[in-house]
Amino acid sequence: MGEECNFKGKVCVTGASGYLASWLVKRLLLSGYHVRGTVRDPGNHAKLKHLWQLEGAKERLELVKAELMEEGSFDDAVMGCDGVFHMATPVIGVVGLTSDPKAEMVEPAIKGTRNVLSSCKKNPSLRRVVLTSSSALRTRLDFDSKVPLDESSWSSEELCEKLKIWYGLSKLLAEKAAWEFAKETGMDLITVLPAFVIGPSLPHDLSFTASDVLGLLRGETEKFKGYGRMAYVHIDDVALCHIRVYEEPNAHGRYLCSSVVLDNNDLVSMLAKRYPSLPIPERFEQFVRPYYDLDTSKLRSLGFKFKGIEEMFDDCVASLREQGRLDSY
Ligand SMILES: NC(=O)c1ccc[n+]([C@@H]2O[C@H](COP(=O)([O-])OP(=O)(O)OC[C@H]3O[C@@H](n4cnc5c(N)ncnc54)[C@H](OP(=O)(O)O)[C@@H]3O)[C@@H](O)[C@H]2O)c1
């Protein structure tokens, strides 16, 4: 009972084994979708075990191979799907440096997005594409810090280059490429702009952002120094938001997905009080970043409610404890 009548159609999730995509797959399966996830190595059982353990996976999950840099690689994956959630992109540290960031992050993000969308275009049953971008809209010099940034704001390409914010640049250019493609082809595209994602992690290995958070909870503040003031959102809200905008017939354009924007020191002083056994400093030195806030009224107007910062970290800490990653504290 339930399986047949709840069936919501077939959707594809790119980069399905990632931190955020795994949670989206979980939520999609729970909602009754048949999910075809793309991964780079379907034979890597250790890396994919958490997906096969999800409720509904045995009946309604398929995992197929696809690589962002290969033209046509996503043709089979998206064929016959009603919707595509494009999440795959190299996330090699949000402020980290790589030896060749353009080749490692920027090119795969842009070329990969074009490849995925070209494959989508070949699928006659496709209804809508939801692309995961980023809430990093403030890498620009010309915004008024008294006015919260909304979906009309775009970071400056030149400033991202100058400040070597390669991940931000990769997200900016990939989203722009997607909107150009949608304009040229008439594709129904929606983009979700999540803040820094906090919550439980399903994959065995922690993603870059999840390991930065683990570092902070262990008292390592180096990575967060560079973040300054940051926007945060619960991983479950990001997954639910993707599904909400996919299902909502009137949804359109970009959707900021952020619960709260906090200064680092406000965050750590809350965390230090809430988890006294963890070695989180009450304050730490950090780069000064301009004040900014985000206006999320567009998503809220769809009736969407965000979980708060306490719930994000309670769920994150509980999951890290369960995985034995905070055993020393
Ligand atoms: N985490 C955040 O705080 C946050 C915030 C805003 C937006 N986002 C966006 O959310 C999405 C997921 O991020 P995440 O944090 O979940 O990162 P993640 O765990 O590193 O997931 C990225 C996924 O992309 C796949 N991928 C990377 N390069 C690929 C390639 N060349 N071909 C095919 N697949 C490739 C990875 O596959 P492998 O497992 O094979 O490497 C992985 O499954 C990204 O678009 C990211 O920009 C994340």
From TrEMBL:
Residue ranges occupied by any NAD-dependent epimerase/dehydratase domain in the UniProt entry: 11-251
Superkingdom in the source lineage: Eukaryota
Oxidoreductase keyword on record: yes
GO molecular function: oxidoreductase activity, acting on the CH-OH group of donors, NAD or NADP as acceptor
SUPFAM superfamilies in the record: NAD(P)-binding Rossmann-fold domains
InterPro entries named in the record: Epimerase_deHydtase, NAD(P)-bd_dom_sf, NAD(P)_dehydrat-like
Keywords associated with the record: Oxidoreductase
CDD domains reported for this sequence: FR_SDR_e
PANTHER family xrefs: NAD DEPENDENT EPIMERASE/DEHYDRATASE (PTHR10366), TETRAKETIDE ALPHA-PYRONE REDUCTASE 1 (PTHR10366:SF821)
Protein name: NAD-dependent epimerase/dehydratase domain-containing protein
Upper classification of the organism: Eukaryota, Viridiplantae, Streptophyta, Embryophyta, Tracheophyta
